[in-house]
Design a protein that fits this description.
mainly beta, five-stranded antiparallel sheet, about 45% strand
Length: about 325
Amino acid sequence: MDYSSLRETAVNVSKTIATQLEMYDSRFYDLVPSNAQLLKLFGNGKHSEGPVYVPADDSLVWSDVIGDRLLRWQAERVSVYRDSSSYQNGNALDLEGRIVACSHGYRAIVRQDHDGEWRILVDRYQGKRLNSPNDIAVKSDGTLWFTDPPFGLTQANQGCGGEPEQPGSYVYRFDPATGEITAVVTEMCRPNGLVFSPDEQQLYVSDTSAFENPELYHNIRTFDVVNGRQLANGRLFAKIDPGQPDGLCVDRSGHLFTSSQDSVQIYTPDATRLGKIYTPEVCANLTFGGKERNRLFIAAGGNLYAVDLKTQGVDWRFSD
């Protein structure tokens, strides 16, 4: 497919596909309709990631990382939002409704300002270049929390290469108001997706180091947020099978939705697995959106899917 044609002519490809659910706990159906229908919204990407819902215009922007572009879904149609995105991955909205994003190519956190231009916010820690920021969460105080594994350095089709300068893969807290950057998690192997609990008292972080070495981790850890600035008491939340967890999101009741090799898996705040929404390809990331905030958008393979649920997300609660 000629990707450039999408910029000139949006395409409509939405269709309902066969949907498989698996319930382990009856509370699953409090969240997911028993007759839930998975919609395929787009199917011509290379590696879909980092979906972010933009309530200002009821659109969904996501990354085609290997395709090196951003795509935009709006009114059942898809178009190119940004060509040559420098291998952008995770995206979120800041308090002013601007997209803040992880750039593998720039090895930085970038932001699309109100004038439409993309600018680097931070690309170094203690004077050394970041690895390749992967996913990002915005806290209610405006700070940006992001993971920094080296996948944009080690995967030839997901970045510009280069050598790591940091001694490890960390989770950072960055304050765009002051320029202060702090490493808040330094003991994880390959931190990847992250999300705050609705009350911001916990931060969930996935570890996908099994992607590189099957003997390593495929789990989600949770940390207590201390004084809104630091993390403590890191502990195992859940091991994810099959595959690894990647992107994470939460609903208003604190249920955790995680990607996995075969599905979206749903957990209670006490780590009880309720069930699965199966996906046709490996699920990479997900977010809530839609005017009623009950549509779960799912990035899997090179595609974008959606399913309407009986619960609501909080992913953009700061931009209302």
